[in-house]
Each structure stands twice: as C-alpha cells, then as structure tokens.
Specification:
The protein has helices at residues 20-23, 30-43, 102-119, 135-144, 174-180, 196-200, 209-219, and strands spanning 2-6, 12-17, 122-125, 150-154, 186-190, 204-208. It is elongated. It is 31% helix and 14% strand. It is built from seven helices and six strands; from the N terminus they run E-E-H-H-H-E-H-E-H-E-H-E-H. By secondary structure, it is of the alpha/beta class.
Length: 220
C-alpha cells in the first residue's frame, strides 16, 4: 500500500509505502470497545470513600435508656438510621483496572489505523518542522487539511549515553507539542504513545514519515 506524503501546506512531496500488516488489516470494531474501556478503567483513580458506622466520630453514649421512654431502642447516634450516622455499603477505594492481552491491544491499534486509512483521514507529513511554538501555525495546518479535530503524531528520539550505554531522557518535538497544547480540538502524541482512544476521538490523524517507521516497528 502506498500513501502520499505532504508538507504542512498540503502539497504532495513524495510517496511512502505503508505496511499492510499495520495499515491494511481488517477492521475489528468489537476490539475498540474492549481497549477503550481498558484505557479508561486504568485512568480511574478509585479514591471514592465514605465513612461506615465504625469510622464516624461521636456516638459513644447511648442516646436514651433501653426501656420506659416509649421510643424505639437506640444504641448509638452514629447508627446508619440516624442523620449524620455511618453509611451502609458505601463506596471504598478500589482499583478499576483489569488485564487485557497485548495481542488484543495491538490488534485494536492496527484496526484503528487501518480504519483511518480506509476513510482517507490519515495524512503522512514529511516533517513537523515548526521553527518555534506557534499555535497559529498548527491552526493553519488543520485548515489546509480541513481537519476540524486532529491528532498530531511525531517521532521520539531516545539517545543513548556513550559512556554508560544507558538510554537518556526521550526527546520530543517540543515546538509541535506547545503549538497544539492550547487547541481544544487538537492533541500531540509521541509515536510510542499512540493509542486507540485518541485515534478514534479525532477526525484526522497527522503522522510524520519518521513516526510511521516507529509505529510499524512496534506493531508488525
């Protein structure tokens, strides 16, 4: 499969061959729900908490004697049937995340990319060469490609320290990231952070030529 390569003004500057195993697979939409649900479940804080009967302050003294008052017997003002008492079966901190196989996650990502290609909403850009952070430049790119809501994906460089042979802090396209940061309908992602939810949540996917190579290496 071949795709056109554009510059930031939507002028064709060449072609690129896309890997059919990544950008030309059968779209399995049922995987989208599973993976997006998995992503959202991982993000849930799970810090909700209410106090039970044993945790509410006060209530040490019996409100009135057991018999002789004509009222129902009560042992504590912190009982759940009292105002200000403990909560019965209330929420407590929990972890909402669950396991999802790597094969399913990769298959869903391939399907999402293939769907964008089939719909003609994936544009390969030669390079996101922003001289400086400029929101107007990002808006102009979206306008040139008629993209109401866009996801920008660029490569990530991971330099290695020659002395220790250990990877250093990854280098991102900072100018691009800052250019789209304040746009409510645009988002920047490094190639290694590409995910199903963000692909489906944006109308158009812009991806650089070098990011294509990183995505194919990770998914094929």
């Amino acid at each position: 499969m071949k795709a056109q390569v554009y510059d930031l003004d939507r002028k064709e500057v060449g072609e690129i061959e896309l890997n059919d195993a990544v950008f030309g697979v059968e779209v399995r939409e049922h995987l989208f729900w599973e993976v997006v649900n998995w992503q959202r479940a991982k993000r849930r804080a799970g810090t909700h908490k209410v106090k039970g009967r044993s945790e509410v302050a006060g209530g040490g003294k019996k409100p009135w004697r057991q018999k002789g008052t004509g009222r129902a017997r009560q042992g504590s003002t912190r009982s759940p049937n009292w105002v200000g008492g403990g909560i019965v079966h209330g929420p407590s901190p929990r972890d909402y995340s669950f396991k999802l196989s790597k094969n399913k996650r990769r298959a869903a990502l391939r399907s999402a990319l293939s769907q964008k290609v089939a719909e003609g909403k994936l544009f390969v850009v030669d390079a996101f060469s922003f001289d400086a952070p400029k929101t107007k430049r990002a808006v102009a790119v979206m306008g040139a490609f008629e993209a109401p809501k866009a996801l920008f994906v660029d490569k990530t460089d991971r330099p290695v320290d020659p002395e220790t042979n250990k990877p250093q802090k990854p280098i991102h396209n900072t100018n691009l990231r800052l250019s789209v940061r304040n746009l409510p309908k645009a988002k920047y992602l490094a190639a290694e952070g590409l995910n199903v939810e963000d692909i489906l949540g944006h109308d158009v996917l812009f991806i650089s030529r070098e990011a294509i190579a990183q995505v194919e290496e990770a998914l094929q």
